């Protein structure tokens, strides 16, 4: 970057406060780097190490000399943007070439450990424990991950372990044991009997490894036993063998990912591990008929929804700003305060409240207007409901922005127009509107882009519905992003790899649309 | 703010027909807009006062008056409501102020300097802001859990960690503010530079005061935007004492949507009040064309 500023800048002498500020800033950066680099290395956080060193270099280059004047103003925001927006995008692109998801989060070693631990069978001399189930504070008591807190009835010793950590003794000072069971534990929330009952199915599948050949499994609601594993893993041949039946399982590819498969080539266990899958995710996106077919319909409605939202909110907001910006009007402040109210309501509250308005039997709209429209059951009505709600949520924004822009237009301009004989309407149409459009047109583009991916507006209001009979992947009001969410996260568990591939595709689509918009609104030409 | 006395007397002398054609119809439009804007909010207020707290028993006009839902929230019977409140204030103020300040710095550079990569920078900014962040959440989550291992205070389930993630949108207001910078004549800062001002003095002593009204508007917009942030918060802030109002209240409601409406509505009312008060406060700065004043003065 080079500055083309007036030469006056370069001739200026440096002031003392400026020097002090510069030294303090650069010194602080050095201190932070010196403090964090060893920690980052110790924790093996290589990505953050690189990010921090690059940031420090950037700060030194930009602020240590008097050059790069625009850079001095751009760098602070750019650093945040690069770290928390661009890096996730790059990571997402990376994920899109993997099978990252539920069941493939861990390493191959963890998957093997789980497979082996799951083959535990009760033997005659199994040790039995009194069992309590716990989650980490804030953890989901219905889905886990669960930790088992076990008391050995013979010795009174307390042990803890979960699916990934082997059973280990817990210091007696960290737990409260009441009548042979752990009732409270440091760093854990112990589940009550009802919660254990709710989580029963998940607990049945839990196996806590003890050593290579044995693991703890849950029996009933408050007992657990140590059993021996029927399966064993052989590192040299990379196979799993069942000691009882003599069957051997080898690594083989099923679908996109590698699993342990039997002699027939079918996967023997549901566990897999994180691995690269090349372009498989993209192939699935573009060649799977069912997914591709839904795309067309969703794309059209996404365009209608985004364009409709922008136009409706802007026309209403701008018109109100024009009408209510007359300085002869009394109570303008009151109008503004009241019209801002919808904006003061957090979006998720508005959406949830509005969704209750559309209830067919006792919703406010049907009740007040004496109708019995099935808002959420009819695709067309549901679409109208989405647009109406979005109008209510969005018009105050356009109103505030238009009012702000109207007031930023110098009075001279209006005075000049009036002196030239323009009446109020002519001033508005020919002078004020073009000036205002210049100020807000990038905002309209941004608003379109926002609505194009306005996930909350759909998810919290209609959850994509109504769904036609037999249709699960896309409802009548699903826009592209919420449809993707349903395909990727709904149904058979999280599939982050595929979801990442689809979001990269959607990003590309958004980019193409933006390019078309730029051309259409002449933003490119206006950047000067 | 003070109106010259002559114009006041003129206004009073207008006959009704002329008054209506010039001003009165504006009130008609305004009142219609107000009715549309306000009815869902009246519904929320009414629901918060309805002791039954169900969807079917609530209308726009409160039928009964009871503060039971408010009492329940403030007493902490439904979760640490006051802690959520404090968390929300911290997050909103820090993020909104820093975001607008950094956007203003960048907007100044984009508006007043000519440098290589400027055009590309502006356009890529517009493009990056369009990335569907819902699906980048997985990556952000992984990153923040890693950051927490370096700085324990910046990890998952911490307000600073949540704040820095939201600051990823620091340049989100650049286009808006650049638009407003562009409306301020360049002659103003060129004159100051000839008088010996540095680029920082031009920015802080001339442009910032000129743009105070619009920057106030922008801070408010950013603040409301952060207040409504729900998705990231629900992923990052799972400990009860770290939640923001949006996350905490949604948790309350999602338990039983129709019967917890009363408590939910009471919390919503308490979120809306400070924003309205804030707007009242900022509105003073918004009134009047200060740009014109700066040019004249």
From TrEMBL, chain B:
InterPro entries named in the record: BP-dep_ABC_trans_perm (IPR050901), MetI-like (IPR000515), MetI-like_sf (IPR035906)
UniProt keyword annotation of Membrane present: yes
Keyword Transmembrane in annotation: yes
Bilayer disposition of the protein: Multi-pass membrane protein
UniProt subcellular location: Cell membrane
Keywords, in A-Z order: Cell membrane, Membrane, Sugar transport, Transmembrane, Transmembrane helix, Transport
Coarse class of the protein's main subcellular location: membrane
Domain ABC transmembrane type-1: 85-282
Chain ranges passing through the membrane: 28-49, 84-110, 122-144, 159-177, 259-282
Superkingdom field: Bacteria
One protein family per Pfam: BPD_transp_1
Signal peptide: none
Family: Belongs to the binding-protein-dependent transport system permease family. MalFG subfamily.
Protein's recorded name: Sugar ABC transporter permease
Organism this protein belongs to: Brachybacterium rhamnosum
């Amino acid at each position: 970057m080079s500055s083309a500023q007036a030469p006056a800048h370069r001739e200026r002498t440096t002031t003392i406060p400026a020097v002090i500020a510069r030294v303090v800033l650069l010194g602080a950066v050095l201190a932070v780097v010196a403090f964090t680099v060893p920690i980052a290395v110790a924790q093996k956080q290589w990505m953050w190490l690189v990010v921090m060193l690059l940031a420090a270099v950037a700060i030194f280059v930009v602020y240590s000399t008097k050059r790069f004047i625009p850079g001095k103003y751009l760098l602070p925001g750019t650093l945040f943007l690069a770290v928390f927006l661009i890096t996730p995008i790059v990571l997402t692109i990376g994920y899109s070439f993997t099978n990252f998801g539920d069941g493939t989060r861990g390493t191959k070693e963890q998957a093997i450990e789980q497979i082996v631990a799951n083959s535990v069978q009760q033997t005659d001399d199994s040790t039995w424990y009194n069992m309590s189930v716990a989650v980490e504070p804030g953890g989901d008591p219905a889905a886990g991950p669960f930790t088992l807190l076990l008391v050995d009835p013979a010795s009174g010793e307390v042990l803890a372990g979960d699916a990934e950590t082997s059973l280990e003794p817990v210091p007696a000072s960290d737990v409260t044991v009441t009548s042979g069971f752990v009732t409270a534990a440091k760093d854990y929330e112990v589940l009550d009997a009802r919660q254990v009952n709710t989580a029963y199915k998940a607990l049945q599948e839990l196996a806590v490894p003890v050593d290579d050949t044995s693991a703890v499994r849950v029996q009933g609601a408050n007992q657990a036993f140590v059993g021996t594993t029927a399966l064993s893993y052989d590192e040299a041949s990379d196979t799993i063998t069942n000691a009882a039946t003599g069957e051997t399982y080898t690594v083989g590819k099923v679908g996109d990912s590698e699993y342990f498969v039997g002699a027939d080539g079918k996967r023997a266990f549901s566990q897999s591990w994180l691995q690269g899958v090349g372009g498989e995710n993209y192939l699935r996106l573009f060649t799977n008929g069912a997914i591709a077919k839904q795309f067309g319909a969703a794309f059209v409605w996404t365009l209608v929804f985004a364009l409709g939202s922008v136009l409706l909110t802007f026309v209403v907001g701008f018109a109100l700003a024009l009408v209510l910006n007359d300085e002869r009007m009394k109570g303008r402040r009151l109008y503004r305060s009241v019209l801002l109210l919808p904006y003061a309501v957090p979006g998720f509250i508005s959406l949830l409240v509005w969704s209750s308005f559309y209830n067919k039997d006792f919703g406010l709209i049907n009740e007040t207007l004496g109708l019995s429209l099935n808002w959420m059951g009819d695709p067309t009505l549901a679409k109208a409901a989405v647009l109406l709600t979005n109008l209510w949520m969005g018009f105050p924004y356009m109103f505030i922005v238009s009012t702000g822009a109207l007031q930023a237009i110098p009075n001279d301009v209006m005075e000049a127009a009036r002196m030239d004989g323009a009446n109020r309407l002519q001033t508005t149409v020919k002078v004020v509107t073009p000036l205002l459009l210049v100020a807000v047109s990038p905002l309209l583009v941004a608003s379109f882009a926002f609505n194009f991916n306005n996930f909350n507006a759909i998810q919290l209001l209609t959850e994509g519905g109504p769904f036609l009979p037999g249709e699960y992947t896309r409802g009548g009001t699903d826009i592209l992003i919420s449809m993707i969410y349903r395909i990727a996260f709904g149904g058979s568990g999280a599939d982050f790899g595929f979801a990442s591939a689809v979001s990269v595709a959607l990003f590309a689509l958004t980019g193409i649309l933006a390019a078309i918009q730029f051309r259409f609104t002449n933003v490119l030409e206006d950047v000067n | 703010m003070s109106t010259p006395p002559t114009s006041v007397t003129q206004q009073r002398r207008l006959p009704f027909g002329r008054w209506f054609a010039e001003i009165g119809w504006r009130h008609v439009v305004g009142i219609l807009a107000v009715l549309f804007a306000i009815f869902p909010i009246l519904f929320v207020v009414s629901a918060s006062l309805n002791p039954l707290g169900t969807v079917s028993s609530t209308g726009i006009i409160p039928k009964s008056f009871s503060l039971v839902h408010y009492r329940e929230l403030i007493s902490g019977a439904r979760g640490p409501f006051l802690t959520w409140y404090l968390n929300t204030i911290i997050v909103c103020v820090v993020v909104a102020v820093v975001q607008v300040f950094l956007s203003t710095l960048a907007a100044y550079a984009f508006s007043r300097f000519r440098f290589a990569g400027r055009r590309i920078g502006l356009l890529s900014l517009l493009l990056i802001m369009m990335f569907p962040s819902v699906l980048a959440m997985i990556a952000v989550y992984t990153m923040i859990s890693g950051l927490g291992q370096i700085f324990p205070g910046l990890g998952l389930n911490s307000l600073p960690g949540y704040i820095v993630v939201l600051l990823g949108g620091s340049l989100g207001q650049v286009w808006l503010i650049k638009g407003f910078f562009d409306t301020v004549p360049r002659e103003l800062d060129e004159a100051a530079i000839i008088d010996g001002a540095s680029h920082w003095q031009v920015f802080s002593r001339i442009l910032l005061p000129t743009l105070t009204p619009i920057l106030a508007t922008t801070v408010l917009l950013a603040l409301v935007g952060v207040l409504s942030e729900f998705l990231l918060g629900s992923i990052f802030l799972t400990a009860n004492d770290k939640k923001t109002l949006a996350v905490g209240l949604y948790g309350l409601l999602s338990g039983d949507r129709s019967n917890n409406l009363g408590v939910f509505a009471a919390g919503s009312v308490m979120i809306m009040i400070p924003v309205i008060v804030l707007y009242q406060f900022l509105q003073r700065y918004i009134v009047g064309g200060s740009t014109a004043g700066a040019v004249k003065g």
